[in-house]
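Entry 12.
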Amino acid sequence: MTALIAEGRLRAGRKLSADTFWLDIEIPDAERFRVPGCFLKLRAWPEPGKGAGPLLDRPFSLHRVQAGGVQLLIRRVGPATRLLSELAPGAPLKLTGPLGRPLAETAPASNYYLVAGGIGLAPMALVRDWLRASGQQSRLFYGERSGAQQADQAWLAAWADDFTATVDDGSGYGRPGLVTEPLAEALALEPRPILACGPPPLLAAVTSLAERFGVVPRVWLEAGMACGLGVCLSCSLPLKGGGRFKVCGEGPTADGRTIDWEAS
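Predicted 3D structure (tokens):
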């Protein structure tokens, strides 16, 4: 798969929670990004030496591909994501991708449980579309720490169909508690392979549950990337038995059972 650079423009943006934003970016040949499991690098500021702004492009999971554009979910946590959250429609952007390895070379052969912790919600719509196109079903488990961080419920329901929301502090909508609790209940009734995205403690917990119920845990890793090309190794994670997994070059998805979560 060859990554290309495209010049795009922001068609629309929407605030979904206190710090979560949806971006719709028009680009030529958007269909090439319809690759579940891959990501792109985004720049909305001058190149180095040509003006102020972050030094590097920023990596983002693809949320969806629709109508000649790509959609992203971002969480405002630093200068780059703050700048992106404040862009006005028509603003130019540079996209590089798709990067990483596809989730699978063939159509999925089973139903899935999708697990999203926080901004780990980002890639789940594209995965859901991929499963649906192959006649497979998915159930989404979406957890946040607080109601203020939860994505707009109507927006979520418009694409997620079957979902269970949880919130750690009991505020907002959905079920109070950890997202792994309803996941464990569902696995006990109907074991399914899992695709999870979120912080490492969540991915480690999901992997443990998957091993308990005898299903495959595919984890979508969010280790910090710099180059995004497998050169700098800043995003690598330790593997059980030795060696390291390059998230940008060999991922961003991996079998959770291969990652040494205690050493991560």
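Annotation: The mean pLDDT is 92. The domain at 4-99 is CATH 2.40.30.10 (Elongation Factor Tu (Ef-tu); domain 3).
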